[in-house]
Structures are given as structure tokens and as C-alpha cells.
Amino acid sequence: MGSASYIDISARKWEQLNSLIPSEWRLQDRYIPSAMRLSPFDSVYKLDCFDEGDTGTLLGVPRACGILSTKEIEITEKWDIQGLLHEIAERRLSSENVALAFCKRAAIAQQLTRCLTEPLFTSALEQARQLDHHLQKTGRLYGPLHGLPVTVKDTFDIKGVDSSVGITALAFKSAGQDAALVQLLRSLGAIIIAKTNVPQTMAFLDSVNHMFGRTLNPLNRLLTPGGSSGGEGVAVAMRASMIGFGTDVGGSIRIPAMCNGIYGFKPSVGRIPYGGTTSGQPNGKLRVALKPVAGPIGRSIQDIDTVMRELVPRAEFFGHDCIPALWPSLSAPKKTLRIGILGSDGLVNPVPVISHLLKEVSGILARSKEYDIEIVNISPPAVMKKCMITGARLMDVDGAGPLLDLLAQTEEPLMPYLQGRTVRRSPTSIDKLYALCAERDQIEIEMRKDLWSWPLSTAYASESSGNPLDAIICPIAAHPVPRHDTYGNLSYTTTFVLLDYPTGTIPVRNLTEADLKLDYSDEYKPLSKWDEQNRKFWKADRKVYLNTPLSVQVVVPRLHDHKLCQVMDTVDTAFKIHYQGSNKAML
Q1: Any binding-site annotation on 227?
Q2: 252 annotated as a binding-site residue
Q3: What global pTM score does this model have?
Q4: Has 453 been annotated as catalytic?
Q5: Domains in the chain, ordered, with CATH?
Q6: pLDDT surpassing 70 at residue 181
Q7: Confidence band for 374, pLDDT divided at 50, 70 and 90
Q8: Based on the number of CB atoms within 10 Å of its own CB, is 382 exposed (0-12), middle (13-18) or buried (19 or more)?
């Protein structure tokens, strides 16, 4: 890039992105939020541009704007994944018409929220035409995901396309080959229509950078869409794709799902190919530090299950980092469960509305008439308080030097949130790294003993599995979906990356006026400095949270990924039956 500054590069990249949206897919000005009229550069800093009108949802704009035909609205809204694939297989829908509808919807979502980084509309439509030709010529589907429109996080390399991950020094340097997951998806017939936005350095929970600007939450523009897979969460929530793929090393799949009121699934290491991603991190760091995983973000458990059923058994043939595995059909929800409710991690107590939600969820599951669910209230193991700190130290073993050096190449400044938080430190010495790995081993041993391997003679022993609990339900965050650049402690999500436990996000209901009246007791004493900081989310103007999604996290033991899907299906079904029957606020 020579001596080009980050501002020049950002302007060129933004111009390139806009050039890939056809003029006939452009929204009228009256539909575009005021915050979107800022340049990407200004959107990084001018948080005071939002007003009270920005709490309204954008989800209805694609249907109302006139860009999509009636048939295209039906294509993008009527079916789940199995239903859409069936329509294509029966030739009632062509892959080209499906891809076109989702490309147009992705273009609309981009103009409303800045969720995309690389529109791939031309190549997507060409692939769709090839799939149609194959089906017409052979009478056979190309693969079990024939014609399925998907999006992927910007980190996943696609040959001939940038993986800039929000860093200007990586712009205009296209990938030489496809990531393993991209190869796997395409081998099954899936069509990748776009890559999605991430935070600069991928080290915080707002998807914002100098090139692509700030991604907005379509449910409420005052609040964050989450990160680092925030663009992916928004694209799925706005039906710009049928399912998306993100990565998670501290919560980056589960948190965007929470912020956008949809479902996230963080598998164990080795289930979904991760290789072939760009992060700006040193090669090999992830082998010795905290290991990220790739996973789906979807609009239902059934959609996630449908895709995992095709990916997991084939993953070992595409990803050097994957293990052999099977994924049985999710024929019916699991009828009998023993679930532990973890109300706190011992480090940060949830604000009152999240604690109340856990009690509400506990009651719904315990009273379920469709399922036999035993609820056990559990306390956090003493060692759990160490998980976040150990995880953070493993994430930072390189001392942030490589990332800061990358930014320095174009004199790119850190995002406001990162300034003062991301500082150059000495890399972790080999002796300290050994000690951290030993500490992680000991934490894993103690957590396994305290959470999953109690003696069978206890009152919580499970006759079916030999374990006291089938799953744990706990918060994703200790607060509701927060404003931009304010996301708090990551202890509830980082913990389960350190332990490599499969975990998922389930939206429960929207926050109500009654929830806003909940408060701390006068006797409440903070557990830690992080707990004291967390209280500010509820002490400030909490009206901004009204009608925003409330979600919970489901956790199972390591490598029990299919069991996680089963449990999530049961729990989600129980929630839907309850809230539909009571006519309470639902997502």
C-alpha cells in the first residue's frame, strides 16, 4: 500500500463496497437511519448522533421499501432451512431466484446497519446458476445444502476476496485460497452471499472499525449488535441469509445472538473447521493460547441442527483441526432432563432483571407439562472465579505487540473503546506460559469434578448418563443488551471457552415495563470491582432496555455438542409453549 494513510485506505474500501450494490437496490433516503448518513469514519466516534427515535426496529424495512418483490419477500421469510431446501429440491424455487432474493435483502440490510464487509453478489448468482444447471442436467442435487444462502464472518478467507478484519493494513490483499469451512460449505451446495463486519482487532464487543464503520443493532440503534461476529448476527436477524457463521474465543457467537434476539451455537474445538481464517494474530498463537472455534448463528435450533448435521460428519475431511464425529438426527426434543441453574459465577452477579429471568426460566421448566425437567439450583465452584482471568491471560500471551505493529503500518489509531485498554506488553515468557497451561488443566479438573462428576449416590445422580446434570443454564452477560462501547465483563462467556464446553444462546422474551421496576436490595454487597462496575448498567437510564431481547446460555460438558442441540431444543420448545400460552411479550 506504499505510504497511503489509514484514512485513504478506508475511503477506498468503503467506495469499493458501495460500488458492489446495484443502483436499483438502493433505498430511498426516508428509510435510512440518521446514524447511517454519517461516514464510516464519523460513525466510529459520534455516538451523540443517536436520538430517542433510534429505538425503533428496522426489521420491517426490507418488506416495506419496495425493492423486494412479493415473491422475494416470501422466499426470504416463509421457510426455515429444511423448508427452503425442499422447495429448491422440488424445483418450485430455483437457486438463482433464491440467491437473488437474499442478495437484495443483504444489500438492504447493509444500507440500514453497515453489517457487510464484502458483498459477493456476483459470484453468488453465478454459483446459483451453475447449481440450477447441474440439477437440470443430472436430475440430482449438488449436495444436501444445494442453493442455501449463507453469510460468513469477515475472518473466513475466500479466494480473491479481502479478509481485512477491520484493519486497514490488511485491506486490498485478497486471500489466496478458501478457508476450510468455505470449502466445506460450497462442497455441500451452500452459496456464500457476503462477508460480515467485525470490530477492529476483534478484541471487543462492538462491531466497529475505520473502514466499514459502526454496525447498528436493527432492534434498537442505541444498543450494540455485539461482537466480534456482530455483522453476522445482524445479517441473520434481518434475514439477509438463512444462517451465518462466526467465531468465538470470548463470546463472539453467543453475544451477537443475545444482542439480536436469535440463536448462537459455540461448539467444542474440532467440530467445525477453523483453519484458513485471518485475525491479525501471529501464526501458531492459537495453538498455545485460548482456542477459538467456528460455529453457526441462526433463527432457530432446528436451522442450526440442520446445518450441523451436514457439517460435523464431514468436517474431518476439510479441516486439519477437526475430529471424526457423527451428528444424529434431531427427531424430537429430549423429554427428561436434569438442569442446573447457575445464578452467578462468583465474580459478577447479574443485574436484577437477569436474576429475575433465571428464576422465571427455572419455574417455566420445572412446571412444564410436556417434559420431565428437574431443576437444581447450583452454586459456582470456587475455582470458577479464576476462569476469566486465566482465559484473558492466555488470550494476551503475545502482549498485543503484533496487532499494534499492524495498525502502525498505516498509522491507524485504536477504536475509542480500546484506547487505554490495549497497550503493548512484554510477551508471556515460556515459563509463565507453562504455568498458565498448568493452571488451565487444574481448573478443568476441578470444574469437571464439581459440576459434572459428583458421586452417583447423590440426590442428583442421573440414571441415564451417570452424571448429576444434563446441562446448566446461566446468563450470557450479567446485564441486558448494552449501549454502544459499554459492554461489560466477559466472565460468563470466556469461562466456557477456557473449558471448551459447548454452549448456546436461546432468546427467551423481551424486556417489559415490569422488569424495569426491579432493583437491588439495600443490603446488596458487590462481589468484586467488576461487580460494582456491572451495577452501573442498571443504575443508569434503564428505559433504553425496554422491548429488547433477554436470553439465556445453555452449557453441557466438553464434546457433548449434539446433546447441547437436544437440550436447547427442549428448553426452547418449553419457553415457546409457555409464552404463547400466557400471551406475554415474546421475541
Answers
A1: no
A2: yes
A3: 0.96
A4: no
A5: 6-582 (3.90.1300.10)
A6: yes
A7: very high
A8: exposed
